């Protein structure tokens, strides 16, 4: 897969320039919003540091063996520590003893079996990275250790990293990348130089999405919550179209799951949660953020709405669903449909709101 640079992600150009010229710390904390190219930024900084023929502005040459190795994810002096699940998603393939991380962290044996991929950075991975940092640099320009996202480190892992942050191995530089620095231990934060990367503005995001061939860019950018062009692109690649997104509220109200079924389960759950957030916002007199063009009902039963929200919040933050995700999704859609249908019946047939006129209440199913 090709590595995106500041040429393709123009909002990274200024922060990269600043880092190349002003940051001399051995540990940088890159504060980059989700879906804004944090990993790409970290790789590009690493490439600048490892390039064997950087230009006068400290930009990597993109030609030397080191640059090629970074871009193909094979530089022996660059290591990225990330949760296994993300590693699979980013196709940052284990080309070394990284493959042993899962087993070392106490998971099931049998690396190729369908065991659950960890969404944390575990202490085993940090210890291995520290060992790696103490071996000699293979191309003589030091080593770069990327932690992405750094807030995925659990507390034991973070504590294991502290000493390395304080007294790094010779020639080691660290790049901790996170969208939420406040989730890091204060002791980790205080040992890093923070670099805050502003999110691209809407015009930049839309221009980029259109350049990527994403249709309905504006709707999709709203769908992800704005300011996250890479996430919008990923959602489009996962099967979400502007049309599907726009029709989603009506479809859910009608119990039609065709649009939702086009999405992978995690995105489908996110879509439901976003719809729920917007319903809560408009029912509280506010504006819809994710579905600004939809005509959302404003007189929903607040108890049922809160219950739906609670049900979604129980599952959405966890990517690793312990039970059948399809059934779970179905139950959540049913709950949303009941919530919206009560409203629809009420809106279409005002008299149906009289208690005796609606004998088949949703909760009887
Ligand atoms: Zn180079």
From TrEMBL:
InterPro entries documented for this protein: DNA_Rep/Repair_Clamp_Loader (IPR050238), P-loop_NTPase (IPR027417)
Lineage: superkingdom: Bacteria
Keywords: DNA-directed DNA polymerase, Nucleotidyltransferase, Transferase
Record-given protein name: DNA-directed DNA polymerase
Any one GO molecular function term: DNA-directed DNA polymerase activity
Pfam families cross-referenced by the UniProt entry: DNA_pol3_delta2 (PF13177)
Region described as Disordered: spans on this chain: 343-365
Any one of the GO CC terms: DNA polymerase III complex
Residues of the signal peptide: none
Any one GO biological process: DNA-templated DNA replication
Coiled-coil spans in chain: none
């Amino acid at each position: 897969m090709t590595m995106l640079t500041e040429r393709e992600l123009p909002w990274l150009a200024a922060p990269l320039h600043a880092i190349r010229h002003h940051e001399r710390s051995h540990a940088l904390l890159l504060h980059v919003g989700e879906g804004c190219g944090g990993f790409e930024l970290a790789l590009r900084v690493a490439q600048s540091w490892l390039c064997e023929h950087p230009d006068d502005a400290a930009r990597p040459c993109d030609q030397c063996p080191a640059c090629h190795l970074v871009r193909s994810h094979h530089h022996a002096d660059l290591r990225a520590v990330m949760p296994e699940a993300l590693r699979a998603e980013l196709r940052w393939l284990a080309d070394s003893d990284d493959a042993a991380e899962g087993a070392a962290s106490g998971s099931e044996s049998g690396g190729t079996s369908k065991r659950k991929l960890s969404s944390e950075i575990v202490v085993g991975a940090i210890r291995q990275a520290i060992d790696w940092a103490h071996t000699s640099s293979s191309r003589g320009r030091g080593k770069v250790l990327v932690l992405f996202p750094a807030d995925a480190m659990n507390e034991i892992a973070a504590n294991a990293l502290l000493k390395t942050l304080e007294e790094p191995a010779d020639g080691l530089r660290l790049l901790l990348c996170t969208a939420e620095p406040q989730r890091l231990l204060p002791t980790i934060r205080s040992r890093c130089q923070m670099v805050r990367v502003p999110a691209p503005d809407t015009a930049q995001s839309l221009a980029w999405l259109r350049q990527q061939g994403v249709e309905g860019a504006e709707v999709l950018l709203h769908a992800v919550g704005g300011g996250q062009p890479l996430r919008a692109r990923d959602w489009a690649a996962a099967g979400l179209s502007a049309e599907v997104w726009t029709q989603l509220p009506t479809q859910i109200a009608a119990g039609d799951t065709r649009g939702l079924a086009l999405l992978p389960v995690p995105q489908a759950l996110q879509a439901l949660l976003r719809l729920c957030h917007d319903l809560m916002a408009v029912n509280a007199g506010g504006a819809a953020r994710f579905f600004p063009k939809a005509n959302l009902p404003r007189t929903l039963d607040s108890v049922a709405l809160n219950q739906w929200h609670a049900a979604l919040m129980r599952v959405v933050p966890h990517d690793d669903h312990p039970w059948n995700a399809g059934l779970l999704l179905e139950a959540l859609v049913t709950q949303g449909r009941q919530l919206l249908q009560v409203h629809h019946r009420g809106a279409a047939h005002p008299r149906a709101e009289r208690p005796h006129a609606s004998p088949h209440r949703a909760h009887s199913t």
